[in-house]
Write the structure tokens for this entry.
Amino acid sequence: MQLIDPILAFHTELQQIRRDIHAHPELCFEEHRTSELVANKLQEWGIPVVRGLAGTGIVGVIKNGNSAKAIGLRADMDALPMQEINSFAHTSQHDGKMHACGHDGHTAMLLGAAHYLSQHKNFDGTVYVIFQPAEEGGGGAKRMIDEGLFDLCPMDAVYGMHNWPGAAVGSFGVRVGPMMASSNEFEVVVSGKGSHAAQPHKSVDPIMVAVQIAQSWQTIISRNTSPLESAVLSITQIHSGSATNVIPDQATLIGTVRGFTNEVIDLLERRMQAIAEHTAAAFDANVQFSFKRNYPPLVNHADETAFAAQVMQSIVGIEHVDVQVEPTMGAEDFAFMLQNKPGCYVFIGNGEGEHRDFGHGLGPCNLHNPSYDFNDDLLPIGATYWVRLAEAYLSL
Ligand SMILES: [Zn+2]
Ligand SMILES: [Zn+2]
């Protein structure tokens, strides 16, 4: 691996920063301590800071030379509302909060790059290092954009990165086009007519209607969606009733819909609503249908992806960069940034979890698992990628 020596020499400090953030996880839009830590480090290294975008968002501005060209590098800072079961020294100090997605590591890798770039200005133009809040469902990226990120910090392209458990340390994955799914949620309330369970003929049973809707929805992906498209429709909650001898008034269906194009999401929403409304009508029930669009699909731009792949290959070798990585039905709010600017999002291998084997607790090292931990061996690899990407983009 062609890693940058001064970044390797900075590994211990980056690891301390990463573990400090891990021990103090903060949830969506509450990243006050983390944001302060990031801003203080950037300022300590002489980097001007833009504060306050999306509340706790921070952008460091690293300039050199006269070029108007600019690149954005983005990390996320938030943790998840879940209990950590690891027993190592840097385990979460806050009950019910945990860095189980590695955003502690993303923040530390970008800080490592910012530190190097501020000291060795081998580029002509501006590097914006973007630390965003609330990736885990809060849409912090969108809020930063809505509050003027790209007006205050005009950039030509923007890049993102996520650690990927199961992929080897020293490997990267990327692909042109859709790489992560659009995530959406629905809630359908069926209103019938409650009754004594011994007198079903006096009721309009909302449970029967909800079950019919649930069954019929399963035909949307098999019969309405093109077999060449991918989509997910998962009903994750059904709520109704409170007693064995009561037919309830209402039943509620809740769940998630995923897909890689807006067209397929439009189709799913339209068919789900039609089936819900017409099924309810067939049984003399009523239905309230709501469908909420959360994150759009994450779509990598072709030129920027080819450029990022070259940079990754120059660091870890061509054989360790999968340029056709399998897309995932997980979602990511960096998708909003890619709707506004050309750019590319990549996966960086986090290993199989061996880094936590000794005394680090049990369980798999998957994202959002209570025994997950970011692999500190990635810190110099990710930081080197950010630096080489910025230097190549803004080459002298
Ligand atoms: Zn996550
Ligand atoms: Zn994440």
Q: What stands out?
A: The pocket of zinc ion (ligand 1) is lined by residues 101, 136, 367-368 (CB under 6 Å). The mean pLDDT is 96.
